[in-house]
Amino acid sequence: MKYQWFERGAFATKKARKYLSETFSPQNIKKIAVIRHAALGDQVITRPFLIEARKFFPNAQITLVAVSNYQYGMPDDLVDRVHIMPGKDKKQETSVSDKIKNIKALGEQDIIFDLASTNRSHWMMALSQAKLKIGFPYKNYLRGVLYNLCVPRSDFQPEVECMLDMLKILGHHPSYPLDFNYPDHRVEQDKVNPFILFFNGASQTSKILSQQQVKELIELSLSSHPEIKHIFLEGKNPFEKGDFLKDLKQYSNFAIQACLPLEQLIELTAKASLMVSPDTGVRNVAIATHTPTVGIFYSTVPFRYTPLYEKHHVVMNADGSIPSPQKIYQTIKSEVSSWS
């Protein structure tokens, strides 16, 4: 099993098996590229992979391959180099020739990890040179074509774990709880003046609750827990503002927080006792700071973004209907009761 820690489910070409058995050594790897094309929440959950890759490949230069229209929250603090591919925002000004030149500019790597599996990342895999090309493609026919080493990907497994499987298959054992290199709730939590954060934004409005549902939910919690501060976080989009909650300012334990820069949001989240949010990047920020969460799901699969450790509650209905404010509040109540 030398650097090939799997029996069933994963895939490796004969050439990859030979390389792993006869030549591969983590200490001798000099260049690795990690492709990740995604919005804030998906950028955040990439952080443990980069941290664990640094441990396993101590002598490697790590290049993050990102895309121009998804740079917010990019974990560039954990890598040595960033390579930006032209995205949708550059579509009109980028020719096919320019795209190929951009891919070639990455340079030859020892290993390329594709954590995106998008059309753009597929082109990067096809036109780049590397001894190992590792990914988790949904389409089986890409095995052996774009990738010479593949791990399974499932909607029922946290996506960060699927990423880490690409290191586990080589024999690396990640540390748990996962390290995101963010401020840590377990250290930073404000226990003297506990507060709950609420956020109702997302990249798609189909993921969020109606304003009436949010107002009803927060008021239920406010009236039941007067000793706990409740803060509604505003986002940058017009539909993420808190004007509709101004009536709740009659409660002394309620406040609306204007949209914060990412660094300040991370710091505030680490101090919070709980984050209540739909499937969004802000919930992933809470997960990354080890802050307990109540996640509201009805249009996306919850299992891909809910860790198997720590206190992260999922509120959902099996039929896909929107959970009621009362049902969401019961989960908040249960969590709050565990604090005493």
UniProtKB/TrEMBL annotation:
GO terms for molecular function: ADP-heptose-lipopolysaccharide heptosyltransferase activity. One of its GO terms (biological process) is lipopolysaccharide core region biosynthetic process. One of its GO terms (cellular component) is cytosol. It holds the Pfam family Glyco_transf_9. The keyword Protein transport does not apply. Keywords: Glycosyltransferase, Transferase. It comes from the Bacteria. This is Lipopolysaccharide biosynthesis protein.
